[in-house]
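Chapter summary example.
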Amino acid sequence: MMRAARFAAQLGFTPAPEVVAAMRGMADRISIISAERVRDELSKLLLTDGPRAGLDLLVSTGLAARVLPELPALRLERDEHHRHKDVYQHTLTVLEQAIDLEDKLPQRPDLIIRLAALLHDIGKPATRRFEPGGKVSFHHHDVVGAKLARKRLTALRFSGEEVRAVSELVALHLRFHGYAAGQERGGAWTDSAVRRYVRDAGDQLARLHVLTRADVTTRDTAKAERLWKAYDHLERRIAELAAEEELHAIRPDLNGTQIMEILGIPQGRDVGRAYAFLLERRIEEGPLGEERAREELLAWWADQHS
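The structure predicted for these 306 residues follows.
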């Protein structure tokens, strides 16, 4: 049954009505299939050039409700004023747009970015709230979605690295909107805020660029253009800081061994606290140099024992 959905995507055919009926009638039987086999078929489906048709078939036959229930759950009942977009269709569009942007990544096709695109909004059903005035909110759906993604991908026996990467991307996919909003208000992120964005993205920065751009599905062309220009601006700032500061390898100006020597302390919790302090100073100020870092470390240490 999973393979029929994959072939529909991969080969571009429409399954015969009796095949669809059989899939719907036997959907419960998927429970006897190992999680590893389900994972493999789902991955192969996602790695096709056009996975939408296969995913739609999984949802319409009830198979998705049994192997990836977070996906059909995105078909939220629309409020009467249509104050929020169709989250399910939005998700499939984000997936398609992420695929179109994969040439920005080292490899194509990229399973992690496709999983992240598919799961980026799965926290919305649990966080949807109808606000005064008819507005709809999904506060913290990024945090909730990251937890749900981690749980589902673990159950499907994806590797630890895949689970980590996808859940981090889901958790970070809204971060850019603070940058765009700041630009619209005439402000901008400080250099330290840009450094934090890069630090938090870590080795997923290139994929986060793709996911954030793919997440723009508004029909308001002026708004879409503003968001794209804002992200262009953010990427330029990241590149400029990276050229100046080796931004992709942010670390304190002093390492753990130097911290222990300067403070005269053994390895332990205090070294970690000191390291975190220096990392925070590095993010806030940029490179300090060893001498200034030493002075600030000693001042911080003295404050801890005053």
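To summarize the output: The first strand starts at residue 129 and ends at 130.
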